[in-house]
Amino acid sequence: MIEAGKEQRRSAPILSVAGLKKYFPIRKGLFRKTVGNVLALDGVSFSVNEGETLGLVGESGCGKTTTGRTLLHLVKPTEGTVLFRQMPVGEMLRKDPAGVRRKMQIIFQDPYGSLNPRMNVRDIVGEAVRYHGIARGKDADGYVADILEQCGLRPEHRFRYPHEFSGGQRQRIGIARALAVKPEFVVCDEPVSALDVSIQSQVLNLLCDLRERLDLTYLFISHDLSVIRYISDRVAVMYLGKIVELAPKKAFFAAPLHPYAEALLSAIPVPDPVKQRKRIILEGDVPSPVSPPSGCRFHTRCAHVMDRCRHEEPALLDGGSGHFVACFLHHEEGGGTV
Ligand code: SF4
């Protein structure tokens, strides 16, 4: 019965994003005149279901981190809507900023840079616990000790400072700080990319375990498809400020549809000497987000480019069973949008 309830919740979106844009102005001259824009996000739409992990993958500079931060309104969107449990996040922030910050948390990539070196772990984790009234005084101290233990640290670690820990332990502190305020939705922004490979799997296992135990929903951002494969339920692929493919994990890894996703996947080694995947080498560099190519943004590097790709922009359409792709090769009449 409990499992059935969980499954039902998993099919309901906790977060819905529609037409999200974030342009960063380029200013020049004495009067800092705007001479152009970096189109970091240019019309991103997707939803995250309650209890799932949506993996967001793409090369550096494609807009993954900006997506995570714009969802939480850590950077203000230029256009578009972000709904958390059907409520616009901007409006929620105006009415109850502390409530939104408690429900929607972020785990940063650089565990050292995101921890105040002058505060001990008890204060780093306990500050938000006290601010949000989750526990006070001695109770807060006990609460911090408990959350540290849940994150694989020892209670006595709360008296130490960030420089006294290894990279993996610091990331555990970052996780403890984010989860101490009992969030419902967490953006994990490349949380393991700064760690050694041996430590990465420990932290990934911890995040999986905490998700189940604390009923969390993650948007997991990474440039590494192997990490995305391990932790995600669904996968979204970004290229130059747009989502080009969005699919359940199994379907995506069995047969990616977008030529860019195919190329990314072909770079992952197959752990089977008999089965070998043909490596697809992409030609050219990623174009500048200041003046992205017209039509399909991938057309300058695509081996299957057609004439219409240069002028017409392919929409992100459902090819069936929730496997969305933005590519004319796979579009048939009547495909549904995200
Ligand atoms: Fe390639 Fe055209 Fe598909 Fe873009 S729309 S990925 S250019 S085939």
Task: List descriptors.
alpha/beta, 4-stranded antiparallel β-sheet, 11 helices, globular, binds iron/sulfur cluster
Structure notes:
With 338 residues, this protein is of the alpha/beta class. The chain has a domain at 2-232: Rossmann fold, CATH 3.40.50. It has eleven helices and 13 strands. The chain has helices spanning 2-10, 64-71, 89-95, 97-103, 121-131, 137-150, 167-179, 197-214, 225-231, 249-254, 259-266; strands spanning 13-28, 33-49, 53-57, 79-84, 87-88, 104-107, 185-189, 217-222, 234-239, 242-248, 317-318, 324-325, 336-337. The strands form two sheets. Strands 6-7-8-3-9-10-12-11-13 form a nine-stranded mixed beta sheet, sandwiched between helices. A four-stranded antiparallel beta sheet has the order 2-1-4-5. The radius of gyration is 21 Å and the shape is globular. The structure holds iron/sulfur cluster (SF4).
Write the layout of secondary structure elements.
Elements: H1 2-10, E1 13-28, E2 33-49, E3 53-57, H2 64-71, E4 79-84, E5 87-88, H3 89-95, H4 97-103, E6 104-107, H5 121-131, H6 137-150, H7 167-179, E7 185-189, H8 197-214, E8 217-222, H9 225-231, E9 234-239, E10 242-248, H10 249-254, H11 259-266, E11 317-318, E12 324-325, E13 336-337
Parallel strand pairs: 3-8, 3-9, 6-7, 7-8
Antiparallel strand pairs: 1-2, 1-4, 4-5, 9-10, 10-12, 11-12, 11-13
